[in-house]
Amino acid sequence: FFSRLMADSGQPAPPPGPVSLDRDLFRQTKTYLGVRVPTKECGSVVKVLGRNKLQGKGKLRPVLEDPEDSARRIVLLDVAVQENLPETVAQLIKERGLEVVEHKVELGYEQMTADEVLRQVIPAGIPVPSSFEQVGHIAHLNLKAAHEPYKFVIGQVLLDKIPSLRTVVNKLGTIETEFREFNMELLAGVDDFVTEVRQHGCIFRFDYSKVYWNSRLQTEHIRLASLFNPQDAVYDVMAGIGPFVIPAAQRGVRVVKGNDLNPNAYKAMQENVVLNKVHLDTFNMDGREFITHVIQTYMNPQSEAFVGASGPGKDGEDSPTTHHFTMNLPALAITFLDAFAQLDELPHIQKPVIHVYCFSKSADPAKESVQQVEAVIGRPLPADCLIGSHDVRNVAPGKEMMCVSFRYPPPAPSAAAAPDEQLSKRQKLSE
Ligand SMILES: C[S@@+](CC[C@H](N)C(=O)[O-])C[C@H]1O[C@@H](n2cnc3c(N)ncnc32)[C@H](O)[C@@H]1O
Fold this sequence. Notes:
Strand order of the largest sheet: 13-12-11-16-17-19-18
Bound molecules: S-adenosylmethionine
Strand content: 25-35%
Number of helices: 12
CATH superfamily of the largest domain: Vaccinia Virus protein VP39
CATH topology of the largest domain: Rossmann fold
Number of domains: 3
Radius of gyration: 31 Å
Low-confidence stretches: 1-15, 416-431
Oligomer: single chain
Largest sheet: 7 strands, mixed
Structural class: alpha/beta
Helix content: 25-40%
Number of strands: 19
CATH architecture of the largest domain: 3-Layer(aba) Sandwich
């Protein structure tokens, strides 16, 4: 099925060259065992046999026209059934007086599934890629080094067999980019990376080659968005194209602000705000600057833009506002927690709730992720501040993506002491 560079005798074999797809080479004639059934009885015979006793997995249909008799059909039997005819099938054949026949079927590339084709192209010993991420019309593969000679064939076969695909790409390298977009190579189809996905009633349009997107986070996006109350304020420090902030705004959270340092993500977030007809403010700042801006502007009661308690609710009482920060940049987000240290100097500002993502390779990721937070904020998280440590997903063997939710704790008593008090303590020590 493929052409390769041949090794000179005595020389170490060079790596295999690229493999090309010749669809004609898949043509073959196969002989199946079937039963000849009068057309009128076909439905009932198929029902009695049941799907698992019929041939016709993949794209081959189990009931075919009989070339010798237009009033009959050939019902193909599964290969396993052919080899060991079960009692029920033998009885059915006898009771109905059905004729058992050998039937030749012309098969080709069109009748085969992607898996069947790839099993023939890729040599035994190299696993056939079994999964990929589909983002709109784009299939995103993460192929292994052994797949290198077969990668364009893999791309083409997926494109041929999955009608919703127009583009197939492969992730390149493991180097993390600053904005977490993928380095990718085109394997098959058109080099159009602008795509659209739907998630929980929201539409997201973006250029997959320029921004971060991971469809596997959809459960997490909605889990977090559903924690927010309408009277709350939500600030996403690393918002990407908006999968937390847009659902939050759509669910009626009254103050929502999304920030991302990647200018392409920022632009896409703005477009998605319009596309989803929601109201939220977008920012294109470094995460630390954004945290300071939010604290000084929206959380400070002395600021004109202060977001205080919302107006009286049903019971006439003001609804208290919780200020939430979300920080999904798991490799680094925890290091940004130092930007909240300024809250220690601002006791009149209500402490926010922070949802920060990280990775943990510990046997107890829930505990260890909290320890990571404590190490950066420089104090233990008291039980009344820790809301939870949630296991988002397993990203690699022994590596979990975690989300720690906590209310920023007040300073430890010694650090919280008023400057005068601290001075008098120092004086006493020097006395
Ligand atoms: C893992 S993505 C998450 C995006 C989005 N929250 C989501 O769940 O899909 C992390 C985002 O952080 C952004 N980012 C990286 N460094 C940043 C920084 N210093 N300040 C703000 N955003 C940053 C990246 O551009 C990227 O969009």
